[in-house]
């Protein structure tokens, strides 16, 4: 993603700020670049950022955030912040993104309120100290895993889902007992300004603060040591974030993106597949990190897919996409021109769509067929309503193409054939693997949201957000009598103490595996203990069976057992 930067940043002497601009893609924009006039954001001063950090540090050290009751109050207040100001948020979505009211409600407001409810109901269970797995050697130590907050955490959120990706992760951070600094995107000033206005009114300012700003303010934030940093955005800025947080040894998670492919089995229900793919590409104007980015389909089925996509498009927008109010606009002119430039330079054929309106920052949903590797549309994550179709020879070619590129944040496969789906998923890597739908994995309670490799690291949403911002602290309490058992750990060392300590650790290995080639085990290997268990079970089962059928004939049992042992 790219953005416009205020010209004043070119005059700054701070090389780190200039490097941010050179790499581009920071969530920054001049506030005049909006079709509707948003409220002007008042950026947090660098001096105020100092005060924010040290206020939160003092509050955390006081233990204020640790009681579960306190955490639940803050979570519930966050839910009511959204509920009480529901219409104001919908208006802000319309200003920043031209977001249809239904998308604002379904994709962000209601889902974030639901996340608050889940955390409120489950935080006691999430935070409960866990007993370590039982060990005959160490149970007397009463080993446990304590769930403790990491401290002061920082979340840097993007413009495209400015409520869910801003507030969703910090629900888990608050539930875990942390103090939080939220740096929302200045690309969505109406939403970010509203969040900054409301959080101090609803929540404890000693434990959560919002910092508004762009490159200088973000650079300042990255100078501090954090209990954890979560950055949601793109890979180029993520590299800068990673370098900065490495200097302070601040643990960092990255939720990025990439080109999420769709692999289509031509035997699938193409009508259903096309409707779901088209929806995933049109919702939020394709500005979704897990949106289907391109389609891989056998050449023989390309025509049928294009027709099904056109039918779905016409069903969604019967009066035409250019006149509908059900599609967002592109976030700013820089992104508009980036996407349009990719479309203008494609060697593929526009099957339908392609209309643009710079004054509205609008790009119609567009399907481009016959796209080849190396095309402009395959050069980067599109992050817009353009869907390239790349015909391939077969499923193996599709898998090879996916594996030749960065691991995506999501991979979609449409097929009713379990073998087809398994082949795609078993031979690729991605943040998520979804069959026969798109985007919905984010809404499913119990599933993590995160990438792998270039598409990100770490997981969040609901319980996974709690885990992300939680330190698992190993703890035990060693009784005095242990020295009568483990006294051999103390000098002077003897052969007897060495033998005893070795036996106490359970380091005896199962039989060595049979090798067919150097370093390769030939088949499954069972330990002697496992063989013994199975033999006893089978013998017992056989005895019961023989006893039942032979009317408890002891002689018959004896003959059967004798034969079993000899055989």
Automatic annotation (TrEMBL):
GO molecular function: aldehyde dehydrogenase (NAD+) activity
GO terms for biological process, alphabetical: aldehyde metabolic process
One GO cellular component, as annotated: cytoplasm
Aldehyde dehydrogenase domain mapped to chain residues: 45-472
Pfam families: Aldedh (PF00171)
Catalytic site: 255
Origin: domain of life: Eukaryota
Keywords carried by this UniProt record: NAD, Oxidoreductase
InterPro entries (alphabetical): Ald_DH/histidinol_DH, Ald_DH_C, Ald_DH_CS_GLU, Ald_DH_N, Aldehyde_DH_dom, Aldehyde_DH_NAD(P)
PANTHER family for the chain: ALDEHYDE DEHYDROGENASE, ALDEHYDE DEHYDROGENASE TYPE III, ISOFORM Q
Family affiliation: Belongs to the aldehyde dehydrogenase family.
The name this protein goes by in its record: ALDH-like protein
């Amino acid at each position: 993603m790219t953005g416009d930067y205020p010209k004043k940043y070119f005059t700054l002497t701070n090389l780190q700020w200039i490097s941010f601009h050179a790499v581009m893609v920071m969530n920054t924009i001049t506030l005049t670049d909006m079709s509707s006039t948003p409220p002007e954001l008042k950026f947090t001063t660098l001096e105020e950022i100092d005060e924010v950090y040290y206020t939160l540090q003092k509050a955390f050290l006081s233990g204020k955030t640790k009681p579960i009751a306190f955490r639940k109050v803050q979570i519930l207040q966050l839910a009511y912040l959204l509920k009480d100001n529901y219409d104001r948020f919908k208006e802000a979505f319309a200003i920043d993104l031209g977001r249809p009211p239904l998308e604002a409600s379904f994709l962000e407001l209601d889902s974030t309120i639901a996340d608050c409810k889940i955390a409120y109901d489950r935080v006691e269970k999430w935070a409960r100290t866990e007993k370590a797995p039982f060990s005959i050697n160490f149970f007397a130590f009463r080993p446990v895993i304590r769930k403790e907050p990491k401290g002061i955490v920082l979340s840097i959120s993007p413009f495209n889902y400015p409520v869910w990706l801003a507030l969703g992760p910090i629900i888990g951070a608050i539930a875990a007992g942390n103090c939080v600094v939220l740096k929302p995107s200045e690309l969505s000033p109406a939403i970010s300004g509203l969040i900054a206005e409301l959080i101090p009114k609803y929540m404890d300012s000693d434990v959560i603060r919002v910092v508004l700003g762009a490159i200088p303010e973000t650079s300042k934030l990255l100078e501090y040591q954090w209990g954890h940093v979560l950055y949601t955005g793109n890979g180029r800025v993520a590299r800068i974030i990673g370098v900065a947080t490495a200097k302070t040894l601040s643990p960092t998670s990255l939720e990025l993106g990439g080109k999420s492919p769709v692999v289509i089995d031509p035997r699938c229900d193409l009508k259903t597949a096309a409707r779901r793919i088209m929806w995933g590409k049109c919702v939020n104007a394709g500005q979704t990190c897990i949106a289907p980015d391109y389609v891989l389909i056998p050449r023989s089925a390309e025509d049928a897919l294009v027709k099904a996509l056109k039918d779905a498009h016409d069903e969604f927008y019967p009066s035409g996409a250019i006149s509908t109010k059900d599609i967002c606009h592109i976030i700013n002119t820089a992104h508009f021109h980036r996407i349009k430039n990719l479309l203008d330079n494609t060697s593929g054929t526009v099957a339908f769509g392609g209309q643009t309106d710079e004054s509205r920052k609008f790009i119609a949903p567009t399907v481009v067929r016959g796209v080849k590797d190396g095309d402009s549309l395959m050069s980067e994550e599109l992050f817009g309503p353009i869907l390239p179709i790349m015909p391939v020879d077969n499923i193996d070619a599709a898998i090879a193409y996916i594996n030749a590129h960065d691991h995506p944040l999501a991979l979609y496969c449409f097929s009713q054939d379990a073998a087809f789906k398994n082949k795609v998923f078993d031979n690729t890597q991605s943040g998520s693997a979804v069959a026969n739908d798109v985007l919905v994995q984010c809404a499913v309670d119990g599933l993590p949201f995160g990438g792998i490799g270039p598409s990100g690291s770490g997981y969040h949403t609901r319980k996974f957000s709690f885990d992300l911002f939680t330190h698992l602290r190993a703890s035990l309490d060693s009784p005095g009598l242990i020295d009568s058992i483990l006294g051999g750990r103390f000098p002077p060392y003897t052969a007897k103490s060495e033998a005893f300590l070795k036996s106490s650790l359970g380091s005896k290995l199962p039989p060595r595996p049979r090798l067919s080639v150097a370093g390769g085990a030939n088949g499954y290997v069972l330990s002697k203990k496992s063989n013994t268990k199975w033999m006893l079970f089978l013998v017992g089962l056989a005895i019961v069976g023989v006893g039942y059928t032979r009317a408890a004939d002891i002689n018959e049992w004896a003959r059967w057992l004798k034969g079993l042992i000899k055989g």
